[in-house]
Amino acid sequence: MHRIRTTDSDHGKKRQKKMDAISSKLYEIKFHEFVLFILEKKMGATRRTFLMDLARKKGFRVESELSNSVTHIVAENNSGSDVLAWLEAHKLETTAHFELLDVSWLIECMKVGKPVDTKGKYQLVESSIASANPDPNEGMLKIQSPAMNAISPYACQRRTTLNNHNQRFTDAFEILAKNYEFRENHGHCLTFLRATSVLKCLPFAIVSMKDAEGLPWIGDEVKGIMEEIIEDGQSLEVQAVLNDERYQAFKLFTSVFGVGLKTAEKWYRMGFRTLSKIQSDKSLKFTKMQKAGFLYYEDLISCVSKAEADAVSLIVKEAVWTFLPDALITITGGFRRGKEFGHDVDFLITSPGGEKEQVDQLLQKVTNLWEKQQFERDLRRYATHEKKMMLDNHALYDKTKRTFLKAESEEEIFSHLGLEYIEPWERNA
User: Fold this and answer.
1) 288 and 315 in one domain?
2) Fewest CB within 10 angstroms: 63, 82, 142, 160, which?
3) What residues have CB less than 8 Å from 350, skipping those under 6 apart?
4) Contact by Cβ (8 Å): 185, 120
């Protein structure tokens, strides 16, 4: 515990306190023994505002300014010494008691819907320091924060694990997105894919529409579906899609390897509704891929386990290295992102060559390792709209400097774009 003395004489702080009072009236305070102050340092104003509002919605009292009433200071990507140095730099001297906690404590509270024990891994300072100007190196317990995803409109700025707390919504959105894809309505398809991506990154389950306030890509159409699911447990629109004959036929036809939307549309218009009828029709001609798709249909639609993927990887590596000893072989796709099961095993195989070739291969590798839904799409969109760069399967080009940017690792690609590096297992957007 620590002591601080603060002054809040300026009008800005008084105005903010008034806003806090209004906020406390809007949201019921359930946990009166906790008074939180969320540190903006290394977090940013937008993310801090979101976390403050979220904590208030969940029943916590949150102060916008550090005051004598604060009991817990929450920080992100800061050690205890970092926080104390910030307090000292801002002339905040001791008169009140407080605990220094990593933001992961607040995230865990959001998950379970109530305060969790502050002891142990969540503490940023191990021992009590009573001096007005403490030694920043004394008794510090440095912890790196497994921070909650910033709720950015770009998936490449959000950390998304496989732990989906909002599956009842995202399952419904994915059905609607698939239906719009079948109807080649790309705008509406993207609407629900973006909403799905946002909800998957949240470290808590949405139980009321207040929980979704301020989230990007949650527009009126999406909100309507969510409200229906919250109130009735299901969406009539989603149920109508699932019962739609066209949707069922397209989903079945496109499950065959080599069959796209144009072929599915053709077969549907010809009156086919089952695969057996299609296979038995002598007038139809199939491509080589479609023939293979029908021949190995059951195998291709069955799940592959991670153990099976690892076994296949050994076989592929042995075969490739027989002909290309210096080849780089990487499992990509879902298994690299941490999935235990998938429908296929994706590999990227490259053979190092000259310097330019190596750079091109690296960029090819990086863009292929990312999630094909929303993560890669938003990464390219971010490069274009935020950085005036162009990212594709072959190069990263700075349009302002008119030059191709070199890199030797994924981390350097993120660095060129000014993005925090996101591990593959956090790219399940």
Assistant:
1) no
2) 142
3) 327, 328, 361, 364, 365
4) no
User: What is the C-alpha separation between 123 and 79, in angstroms, rounded?
Assistant: 9
Domain range for 59 is: 11-122
Nearest to 134 by CA among 74, 79, 97, 94: 94
Q: How many residues does the chain have?
A: 429
Cα dist. 419→41, 156, 274, 389 in Å?
17, 8, 47, 13
Considering the domain architecture, whether residues 288 and 154 belong to the same structural domain is answered as yes
pLDDT recorded at residue 109: 87
Rounded-to-integer distance, Cα 143 and Cα 160, Å: 21
pLDDT, tens only, 47-84: 788 788 888 888 899 988 888 888 999 988 788 888 88
The CA distance from 322 to 36, in Å, is 61
DSSP code of residue 147: P
How many Cα atoms occupy the beta-carbon half-sphere of 136 within 13 Å? 12
Q: Which of the two residues, 293 and 108, has the higher pLDDT score?
A: 293
Packing angle of the helix pair 167-182, 261-269 (nearest 10 deg): 70
Q: How many separate domains does the chain show? A: 3
Q: Give the 3-state secondary structure of residue 342.
A: strand
Q: How buried is residue 120: exposed, middle or buried, by Cβ count under 10 Å (0-12/13-18/19+)?
A: exposed
Question: Is residue 378 in a domain?
Answer: yes
**Helix ranges restricted to H, 148-235:** 167-182, 186-201, 220-232
269 shares its domain with 327: no
pTM of the model: 0.62
Cross-strand bridge partners of residue 146: none
Q: Is the residue at 3 inside a domain?
A: no
- What CA–CA distances, in Å, run from 148 to 210, 230, 305, 378? 19, 24, 29, 19
Residues 252 and 332 both lie in one domain: no
